[in-house]
Design goal:
The complex is a heterotrimer of chains A (138), B (152) and C (137). Chain A has 138 residues and is an alpha/beta fold. Chain A has 6 helices and 4 strands. Chain A has a single domain, classed as 3-Layer(aba) Sandwich (Rossmann fold). Chain A has a 4-stranded parallel sheet, sandwiched between helices. In chain A, helix 1 packs across helix 6. Chain B is an alpha+beta fold. Chain B has a single domain, classed as RNA polymerase II/Efflux pump adaptor protein, barrel-sandwich hybrid domain (OB fold (Dihydrolipoamide Acetyltransferase, E2P), Beta Barrel). Chain B has a 7-stranded antiparallel sheet. In chain B, strands 6-8-9 form a 3-stranded antiparallel sheet. Chain C is of the alpha/beta class. Chain C has one domain. In chain C, strand 3, helix 4 and strand 4 form a beta-alpha-beta unit. Chain C starts with 6 loop residues before the first strand and ends with a helix. The chains are: A alpha/beta (138), B alpha+beta (152), C alpha/beta (137). Chains in contact: A-B, A-C, B-C.
């Protein structure tokens, strides 16, 4: 946990079957470790899914942002099921539509297009975090 | 097996074929009602193709010939060209897919329908289609062939 | 339908720690390189939200749970929703047994981390071979 009293918790699906899951994971790390390091934190989606008390307490007591790979929206759904304060959600597959030239192909290790897309998504999430911290939305 | 669908499992994937539709061997389904044909892609095609990012649909009123490309579905891996099973005029287009192409993956036989065509040679073109039962058998064979290819 | 025998490999992919990343990469290496025809990866988030195919597979086929840490989210999820796992691997224990540490940040493994992932992948593949051998008549 960082020093701020009300960090935003960024959760990712980390789906293992598609590039989207790896991109969502990298985008999350980009937000919580690079772009908005002081204002955010993350925890394992698996912990939430299995009802870990600490994880549930964390997402219920802080605003959360879900970064999902695909329309299955596993992170968003699990946050909602846990009673989290879901402030925003993003899907890699939606943002990919804005960047037709990017064709991420790999899953295990991201290729260049995957990394670029992850960064682009992270930047959008970072802007959302700024908006939330200025008092916009819940 | 449900009342509405034939289904088969391969690994973790469950492939469904909706009963009471007609099918083209290239994985397109057709529902004929009041002389018009609503078409879409099968569960098998959407699963093999992957998440659909864009659906490029024809304009309402445009004409199409049987086996001519009518829709392009772009996934992260490839562009899938969907051939029309009918000649005729496009009377309706599922414009919801412009914003939600994932409906093709989520509801291939329902909300993911593509277009409706007023066929100009309905009976003749219909004869080229197969029943759901036959398509189900064909699909199982396609799955088996792919599985054998993966093994090699 | 004739096909190669399959085993489901389910990884925790834990985002919080490097062991989660190692689990994830090792599982992918098994799928892509070591046992490509025999491995089915189950996506844990999808599995947990009730995806029918993932749960059915885990119910009827042997599964190996690969967990990063002692919380054992993967093993617990499979046992909760589908049934007993064929084998359960805890990465943090294995790494300790192998005397491995300093494997890189959770986001991107360093050279030692990649070696650990490869070694874990071999371990998973060996477990798969053992399960296949035991299930032969």
């Amino acid at each position: 946990m960082n020093a701020l009293t009300d960090p935003i918790i960024v959760m990712t699906c980390s789906g293992i079957g598609k590039p989207f899951g790896t991109i969502a994971r990298e985008a999350t790390y980009c937000v919580v470790e690079d772009l908005r390091k002081e204002e955010t934190d993350t925890t394992c989606l698996s912990l939430l899914v299995m009802g870990d008390e600490d994880a549930i307490r964390l997402v219920k007591s802080h605003r959360c942002i879900a970064i999902d790979g695909c329309p299955s929206e596993c992170a968003k759904k699990n946050l909602e099921l846990s009673g989290a304060k879901l402030a925003a959600s993003f899907r890699v597959v939606d943002i990919l539509r804005d960047y037709k030239d990017l064709k991420p192909q790999t899953v295990t290790f991201l290729d260049e297009d995957g990394r670029r897309l992850a960064r682009l998504i992270a930047e959008r999430v970072a802007l959302k975090i700024d908006e939330l911290n200025r008092g916009g939305n819940p | 097996m449900s009342e509405e669908f034939y289904q088969t499992a391969a690994d973790k994937f469950i492939f469904t074929v909706k009963k009471n539709l007609l099918y083209a061997e290239n994985d397109v389904w057709a529902e004929i009602k009041d002389g018009k044909a609503k078409i879409g892609v099968t569960d098998f095609l959407q699963r093999r193709g992957g998440d659909i990012i864009f659906a490029e649909l024809p304009k309402k009123g445009s004409n199409v010939r049987r086996l001519e490309e009518i829709v392009n579905l772009e996934t992260i891996k490839a562009v899938l060209s969907i051939e029309s099973p009918f000649s005729g005029a496009v009377t309706e287009v599922n414009t919801v897919l412009n914003d939600k192409p994932e409906l093709i993956n989520e509801e291939p036989y329902g909300g993911g329908w593509l277009v409706t065509i007023a066929p100009s040679n309905l009976e003749e073109d219909k004869r080229q289609l197969i029943t759901a039962e036959k398509y189900f058998e064909l699909m199982k064979k396609k799955i088996e062939d792919e599985s054998r290819k993966d093994k090699e | 339908m004739m096909s190669a025998p399959k085993i489901g490999v389910v990884s925790c992919s834990g985002e919080c720690c490097v062991e989660g990343t190692i689990s994830r990469i090792a599982t992918r290496l098994v799928l892509e390189k070591l046992r490509p025809g025999n491995t089915v990866t189950i996506c844990l988030p999808l599995f947990s939200t009730g995806e029918k195919g993932e749960r059915m597979f885990a119910k009827y086929f042997p599964t190996i749970a690969v967990d990063g840490c002692e919380k054992r989210c993967t093993k617990n999820a499979i046992e909760k929703y589908s049934g007993k796992t064929a084998r359960s691997i805890m990465v943090s224990d294995l790494l300790k047994d192998w005397g491995l540490s300093s494997l890189g940040p959770r986001r991107e493994l360093n050279e030692e981390g990649l070696k650990a992932a490869s070694r874990l992948a071999e371990e998973i593949a060996a477990v798969m071979d053992d399960i296949f051998a035991r299930s032969r008549p």
